[in-house]
Write a structure and sequence with these properties.
The chain is α+β, with helices and mostly antiparallel strands. It folds into six domains: 3-131, Rossmann fold; 142-188 and 456-563, Topoisomerase I, domain 2, CATH 1.10.460; 192-254 and 383-450, Topoisomerase I, domain 3 (Distorted Sandwich), CATH 2.70.20; 268-378, Orthogonal Bundle (Topoisomerase I, domain 4); 568-608, no CATH class; 630-717, no CATH class. 36% of the residues lie in helices and 22% in strands. The radius of gyration is 32 Å and the shape is globular. The protein starts with a strand and ends with a helix. Belongs to the type IA topoisomerase family. It catalyses: ATP-independent breakage of single-stranded DNA, followed by passage and rejoining. Its EC number is 5.6.2.1. The active site is at residue 294.
């Protein structure tokens, strides 16, 4: 009889079918077949936190199809992904498809492979095992823990802050990081400093070079204002200069390790502006099509077989001079990394990233980065000739110039041929000068600078920070970032996260009243506990109970003591209430900040804060109201974003939609304006004269193209 093989997706099923014999029937579960209910807690707290799983409506059809496919089969092979989530999906399938008492027993087996290749699949099917209950328990523990936090803490936020807010064990920590970084920026006081650059040459018409002033009489020089810079400039004009020293050294630049999940997400963010979600979606497709090894990993390990194949490829395509004596193996710093897993690498190096070969455009970019890095990490370092030259003036001013010349490309050869580099290095080649040689200064350029605040977090830097703190694991970074955007806690300006008003209020509330939920160290320790459950070193129920019992008591207490009016009052304003004379206070309401009378509820005066629109928005003429004599349209912000309303409101309640223009005439009719429009969770660009003109574009016709995830976050603002 034939065997039923179950994977998660149709793409993976199609790829796997190509390697298995005809007596294997491969079906897809379409992801999770069973989960906690969407409404209600779904956890029996009084009976050891037993989860109450349900089959969602969208999965019932799939489950019935799997049951039908099982009728003429004598065994089921569960071939879901090789991680905790995949193990849990396999367990749910076994629980649902397993025979009831008294019926014929069907054998369930588990196969695990980290790449969809013929050899890996054959090896996995030769070594079938039972389900790993420790991995299942670890996934259940995480799911239950996050459900307890969300379903206990979120309703408290609804009552004390605003309905619809959510809290999460990892998402709230990510929001806290973004909020604290923004506060660092707000508190930052820029300091002025100046630099002085000199341009030098000699009497023999050698090529000139530039050097920066770094010291005065052997001490570091600090130029704090323009007067000091101008004084130095005047002193240098009539000074004489000599080459004090010329030092030549060799510098090596080693290749980077192969990718793991977090570094792949960081690289795609830095090079192509991909969000973590976009990167992981593409990587999932590549894995299921058999192009790469499993993409959720924190290991830097590479198999000896792959290292040997990489060395052969490098020798044949780049030359033996690019190869080190032995293959290079990297050690993972994380103590909890699963070394049985591999780093992310191509399954076949012969499949070069210069043709799509069934890949989407995004998948090709992700594959190119993985393919490139997997070769680079097995090549020799790049070698530079580095020159450092010091110039000394007769009065004691010291300048320094540095230059580099790439003399051996090493691993950088791969990126050069692909025209993709993860970092740009500007080389400055210095002319040949000798020590004690006299030089002339032809230009002196003082320049004003200001110290810069710490940069906002991007996908790349937020993932890096979470990983360094030990918060989250490879499978959690992308969904965490997607969640805090979907919940409206943060928006994106270009690639960088900006916290909204509610992010500050919720973070402050959690830090003060629920420090264990949002504490960096505690969250990292909880991740370690989940790892110990996965390794079989801890039972999951005591871990959950140890957290939940004090947490639940705190929830009950804070529900009684916290006052919404105190939490949502952000501070005093300089204005007085026009109706009763009391101070107006800044409050946070359903649609953002507004001014309210401090004498509330005796006085119910309130008004919106009219500072959310840019000066450009405020100064625009939006036309006259057609329904009253002296009214004009002004820009307002409401529940669904910006809109135009009559200035005579509430006497006149006329409104009309706000058209966000990009400053360009329609390229099709040349009459209307190109405006931003919204379609579901994306934005697109269309003509303001629609339906008379049907011009539309998914990309900005001004030339700035947004990624799908960037447009998704932008649409929530617009």
């Amino acid at each position: 009889m034939s065997k039923l093989v179950i994977v998660e997706s149709p793409t993976k099923a199609k790829t796997l079918s190509g390697y298995l014999a005809k007596d294997y029937d491969v079906k897809a579960s379409m992801g999770h077949i069973r989960d906690l209910p969407k409404s209600g807690m779904g956890i029996d707290i009084d009976h050891d936190f037993t989860p109450e799983y349900v089959v969602p409506d969208k999965a019932k059809k799939t489950l019935n199809e799997l049951k039908k496919a099982l009728k003429d089969k004598d065994s089921v092979i569960l071939a879901t992904d090789p991680d905790r989530e995949g193990e849990a999906i396999a367990w749910h399938l076994q629980e649902l498809l397993g025979p009831k008492r008294g019926k014929n027993k069907i054998e369930f087996k588990r196969v695990v492979f980290h790449e969809l290749t013929k050899d890996a699949i054959e090896e996995a099917f030769k070594n079938q095992t039972d389900l790993n209950s420790d991995l299942v328990n670890a996934q259940q523990a995480r799911r239950i823990l996050d459900r307890l936090v969300g379903y206990k803490l979120s309703p408290l936020l609804w009552k004390k802050v605003r309905y619809g807010l959510s809290a999460g064990r990892v998402q709230s920590v990510a929001v806290r990081l973004i909020v604290e970084r923004e506060r660092e920026r707000q508190a930052f006081n820029p300091e002025e400093y100046w630099t002085v650059e000199g341009k030098f040459t000699d009497t023999k018409n050698k090529r000139p070079f530039k050097a920066e002033l770094v010291e005065y009489k052997n001490k570091k020089i600090d130029i704090t204002d323009e007067n000091k810079a101008k004084k130095i400039q005047s002193e240098l004009i009539n000074d004489s200069f000599t080459i004090k020293s010329v030092k030549k050294t060799e510098r090596k630049k080693n290749p980077y390790p192969p990718y793991k999940t977090s570094t792949l997400q960081q690289a795609l963010s830095n090079v192509f502006g991909f969000t973590a979600k976009r990167t992981m979606s593409s990587a999932q497709g590549l894995f299921e099509k058999g192009y790469i090894t499993y993409h959720r990993t924190d290991s830097l390990n590479l198999s000896p077989q792959f290292v040997n194949s990489a060395r052969t490829y490098i020798s044949s395509n780049y030359g033996k001079e690019f190869l080190p004596e032995k293959g290079v193996f990297y050690k993972t710093k994380s103590a909890n990394a699963q070394e049985a897993h591999e780093a992310i690498r191509p399954t076949e190096l012969s499949r070069r990233p210069d043709k799509k070969n069934g890949m989407t455009a995004d998948e090709l970019k992700v594959y190119m980065m993985i393919w490139k890095r997997s070769l680079e990490c097995q090549m020799l370092p790049a070698i530079y000739d580095q020159t450092s030259m010091e110039v000394l003036s007769e009065t004691g001013y010291g300048f320094r110039a540095t230059g580099s010349l790439l003399k051996f490309e090493g691993w950088m050869r791969v990126g050069k041929l692909l025209s993709v580099s993860e970092e740009e290095e500007t080389l400055n080649i210095l002319p040949e000068y000798s020590e004690s040689e006299k030089v002339l200064i032809s230009e002196i350029t003082p320049a004003q600078h200001f110290t810069q605040p710490p940069a906002r977090y991007s996908d790349a830097t937020l993932i890096k920070q979470l990983e360094e703190l030990g918060i989250g694991r490879p499978s959690t970074y992308a969904p965490t970032i997607a969640t805090i955007q979907a919940r409206g806690y943060v928006t994106k300006d270009n690639r960088y996260f900006i916290p909204g008003d509610f992010a500050y209020v919720v973070t402050d509330l959690l830090v003060e009243h629920f420090p264990e939920v949002i504490d960096y160290q505690f969250t990292a320790q909880m991740e370690d506990s989940l790892d110990e459950i996965a390794n079989g070193d801890k039972e999951w129920v005591p871990v959950i109970r140890e957290f939940y019992e004090p947490f639940e008591k705190e929830i009950v207490e804070k529900d009684k003591t916290l006052q919404k009016s105190e939490i949502t009052t952000l501070g005093k304003s300089d204005e007085k209430c026009p109706e009763c004379g009391h101070d107006l206070v800044i409050k946070l309401g359903k649609y953002g900040k507004f001014l309210s009378c401090s004498n509330y509820p005796e006085c119910e005066y309130a008004k919106p804060i009219e500072d959310e629109n840019s000066d450009n928005d405020k100064n625009q003429d939006y036309g006259k109201c057609p329904n009253c004599e002296d009214g004009t349209f002004i820009l307002k912000t409401g529940r669904f974003g910006k809109f135009l309303a009559c200035s005579n409101y509430p006497k006149c309640k006329t409104t009309k939609p706000y058209l966000q223009k990009i400053g360009m005439k329609c390229p099709k009719c040349n009459e209307g304006e190109v405006i931003v429009k919204k379609a579901k969770r994306k934005i697109f660009y269309g003509c303001s004269r629609y339906p008379d003109c049907d011009y539309s574009s998914w990309t900005n016709p001004m030339g700035k193209q947004k990624s799908p995830d960037e447009t998704e976050s932008l649409s929530s603002i617009v």
